[in-house]
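User: Need the bound-state model for S-adenosylmethionine:
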Amino acid sequence: MSNINFDPKKVAHYEDISRKAVFGYDQLFTMVLSLLVENQNETTNVLVVGCGTGMELTTFGKHMQNWQLTGVDPSQEMIRIAKANINDHGLNNRVTLYNGFVDSLPEEEKYDAATLIFVLRFIADDRKKLSLFKDIAKRLRTGAKLVLVDQYGDPSSEYFQEMFKAWGYFMKHSGVPSELAINIAAQATDKSLFTESGIIELLSEAGFTKATRFYNSFMHGGWVVQKI
Ligand SMILES: C[S@@+](CC[C@H](N)C(=O)[O-])C[C@H]1O[C@@H](n2cnc3c(N)ncnc32)[C@H](O)[C@@H]1O
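Assistant: Bound-state model below.
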């Protein structure tokens, strides 16, 4: 068993707050699965890294009857909620959950696709980001896609400052309590932020190519890459 700590009260509200703080939060998961579908009727093994409360697992499982899903997350509390959500959606027979980090998964099992959604901001250090990308790459078949979504940007740029300000107003008008919005925004400018060129370089070092940005809202970006 592994654990990184999350306040259980905050975890329970996580999805609600995310819906208000991230433009298109629910649809984003449908967008991600649409990017990963290769053949609608084929069995596809998908690895969901940092599965949290199970948003990817339940969305993918509901729409894609032939997908087998594996969720991994180091937080016991997140895994506990994900388990309950998967149960509620009747997806127990197609979802496997691991409480731990990607490097604890066997390397023999090769996945057809992977996702890493809103996880990188918990990993400040570039070497640790690279080592996570490498751990994922080792578990993917050649040609498999990885989808990555997170906050990004260069806080010293004018563009970032403009987007950051607008995002603050967006959260306010979407109903995020102001104190919480300040906390969320403060976290977003900490040192875990990456630039687009920086993250593409790390992904390429880890064995991924063909980076394409498919989503952008304020300071959130989404990319799809392919394992070489
Ligand atoms: C903000 S939540 C996102 C959950 C889900 N992907 C979503 O978008 O709803 C981030 C998750 O990443 C997990 N996490 C943090 N560090 C991680 C790591 N090194 N490897 C895998 N998951 C990690 C956390 O435990 C947390 O559940």
